[in-house]
């Protein structure tokens, strides 16, 4: 196993922003890490690249427990590199930016040149070798940062939202680079993204995070909550702020399943007078045969399965805020 984590926690200001009981990642695979803002993706990537230590729990790298003592991390950091969302380059040439890490590792000058050229070839940036990094676009900066990481011959590369701040043509280039790093160099890859479609194209496997916990897209729309009465309707109160209409006998704690086909995205103008309308931001979109799955953060991750025609009529994108209506008939107590 490349990584295993057990009871991993990262706590900031008394709050667990990451809380993973178990997670295992295999060598030689491409993993896509998905989740809404603040779900813990960057925190997990920083722990897996040995840049941040966990508050509790154990990380096993190649089946050995990792000691996060600073003086023991250097060899691991040479094998695992993280390419940041907004990479910082030194204000000098592309060549010197890549050369820096190689000099530290005392690699002779002639060899350095070969490595730098090969790394820039891999990201299609050889012609920029002498360019000053000030003149690079966001996409080109990302590619140089990938070349810089690659020059250190890593076994594992982690990417934090590699395409979030680049244009469409750079997105395609970065996608191809990541694919080639995996197939040609055999590098294990973990990347985070908000884009389920992109992750589905590129990753062998997807990992979903929600509020620091692993969340399975298979057991979707299953929530614990307490039944309460509001007016003439009973609701299940989930996560202390989400009301889902439910047919229940007693005002008790229950586990509910919300059928994603029964959930509707409605126009906001019609929504104002309905108490059970949920407002949320779309963080995942995926095409499934004749359907499109929309996952929105309404305080909980709520999955909505739409017919393709319904989806086309709605024209919603990742990041859009939408109004969602759950119907009592689509909610069962399990
Ligand atoms: N150094 C820190 N100090 C305090 N809180 C932090 C720190 N780093 C992260 N957090 C908090 O931890 C939570 C998870 O943050 P993280 O950056 O890992 O999420 P994310 O899924 O990568 O989000 P995004 O998609 O917005 O990048 C957030 O609530 C964030 O505010």
TrEMBL record:
Gene3D superfamilies (alphabetical): P-loop containing nucleotide triphosphate hydrolases
Origin: domain of life: Bacteria
Protein name in the entry: ABC transporter, ATP-binding protein
Keywords: ATP-binding, Nucleotide-binding, Transport
Keyword Transport attached: yes
Cross-referenced SUPFAM superfamilies: MOP-like, P-loop containing nucleoside triphosphate hydrolases
Species this chain originates from: Desulfonema magnum
Record-linked PANTHER family: AMINO ACID ABC TRANSPORTER, ATP-BINDING PROTEIN-RELATED, SPERMIDINE/PUTRESCINE IMPORT ATP-BINDING PROTEIN POTA
Chain ranges of the ABC transporter domain: 3-236
InterPro entries to which the protein is assigned, alphabetical: AAA+_ATPase, ABC_SmlMolc_Importer, ABC_transporter-like_ATP-bd, Mo/tungstate-bd_C_term_dom, P-loop_NTPase
Annotated GO MF terms: ATP binding; ATP hydrolysis activity
Keyword NADP in record: no
């Amino acid at each position: 196993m490349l990584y295993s984590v057990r009871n991993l926690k990262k706590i900031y200001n008394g709050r667990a922003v990451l809380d993973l009981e178990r997670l295992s990642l295999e060598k030689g695979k491409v993993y896509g890490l998905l989740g809404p803002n603040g779900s813990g993706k960057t925190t997990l990537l920083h722990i897996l690249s040995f840049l941040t230590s966990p508050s509790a729990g154990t990380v096993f790298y190649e089946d050995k427990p990792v000691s996060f003592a600073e003086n023991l991390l250097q060899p691991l950091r040479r094998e695992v590199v993280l390419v940041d969302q907004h990479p910082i380059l030194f204000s000098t040439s592309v060549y010197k930016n890549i050369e820096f890490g190689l000099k530290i590792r005392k690699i002779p000058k002639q060899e350095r040149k070969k490595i730098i050229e090969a790394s820039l070839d891999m990201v299609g940036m050889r012609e920029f070798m002498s360019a000053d990094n000030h003149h690079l676009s966001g996409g080109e900066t990302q590619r140089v940062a990938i070349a810089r990481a690659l020059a250190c011959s890593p076994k594992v590369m982690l990417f934090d939202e590699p395409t979030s701040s680049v244009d469409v043509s750079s997105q395609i280039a970065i996608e191809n680079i990541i694919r080639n790093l995996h197939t040609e160099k055999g590098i294990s890859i973990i990347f985070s993204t908000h884009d389920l479609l992109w992750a589905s194209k590129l990753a062998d496997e997807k990992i979903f995070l929600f509020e620091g916990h692993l969340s399975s897209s298979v057991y979707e729309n299953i929530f614990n909550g307490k039944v309460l009465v509001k007016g003439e309707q009973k609701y299940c109160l989930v996560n202390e702020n989400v009301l889902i209409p439910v047919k229940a006998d007693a005002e008790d704690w229950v586990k509910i399943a919300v059928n994603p086909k029964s959930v509707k995205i409605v126009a906001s103008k019609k929504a104002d007078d309905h108490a059970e309308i949920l407002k949320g931001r779309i963080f995942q979109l995926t095409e499934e045969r004749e359907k499109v799955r929309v996952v929105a953060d309404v305080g909980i991750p709520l999955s909505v399965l739409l017919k393709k025609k319904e989806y086309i009529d709605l024209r919603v994108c990742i990041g859009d805020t939408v109004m969602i209506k759950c119907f009592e008939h689509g909610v069962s107590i399990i």
